[in-house]
Amino acid sequence: MERKAKYGWAAAVVCFLVLMVVTPAIPQSQEYHQFADQRRLFLGIPNTLNVISNFPFLVVGIIGLILCEIWGWTCFFLGVAAVAFGSSYYHLDPDDATLVWDRLPMTIAFTSIVAIFIIERVNETTGTTSILPLVAAGAVSILYWRLFDDLRPYAVVQFVPCIAIPAMDVVVYRWTGHVISGHTLKHLSAAMVPVFLTLMLAKRSVEPDRTTTLLDKWRLSWVRVSERGFFKAERLDCEYAVVSGREG
């Protein structure tokens, strides 16, 4: 790790520690679990719309897993797909215990986005090695909240995401004539983020000017396997014609 990077990490840790010392703890309000729309519309499902509005996360997560190119995207779309199960489980019986399973997959998705940014815009090796530490930091923030009833680390990790619409949960529910609540709209709005990211992955191709692409690494791995006689060289040439634009 370069000296500047070490100083940067040290400064970040110091800032976080100072923040934890000078700011009061943020307990989880129990009113958070009292959502505007608590109707059982069909099949006896409590909070029906808040439960079924998580389904788009599963669809987009599965599609994204098919298209993903790097480990960062894999972790992101795994988190997105898991939100469908975790959030649905929480909304069936909202309390602090079930809220853990709502926040954990969201944290995996959010922290993976940071790793993806590093991989694609800063340094691929650094970004790849940062995936597990970032995801672990998110998981620890949730564990800290459950043990000490303090949301400060979680707030730092999440950076107050998607706060405007759910904050107007009751207001939106009234505005729509008790048809849909702000929390349901938050689910649908948040699901649109991975939709656009999925479309981006479907449309883009690997840029030829990237210094080290994952495809290059795979190509080298296939070459080694090929030399051992497990695969034919013809398949190698055909499989990775997509990166031929780097030559010349």
Automatic annotation (TrEMBL):
It comes from the Eukaryota. It comes from Spirodela intermedia (Intermediate duckweed). This is Uncharacterized protein. Keywords: Membrane, Signal, Transmembrane, Transmembrane helix. Residues 1-27 form the signal peptide. The chain crosses the membrane at residues 51-68, 75-92, 104-119, 131-148, 154-173. The keyword Transmembrane applies. The keyword S-adenosyl-L-methionine does not apply.
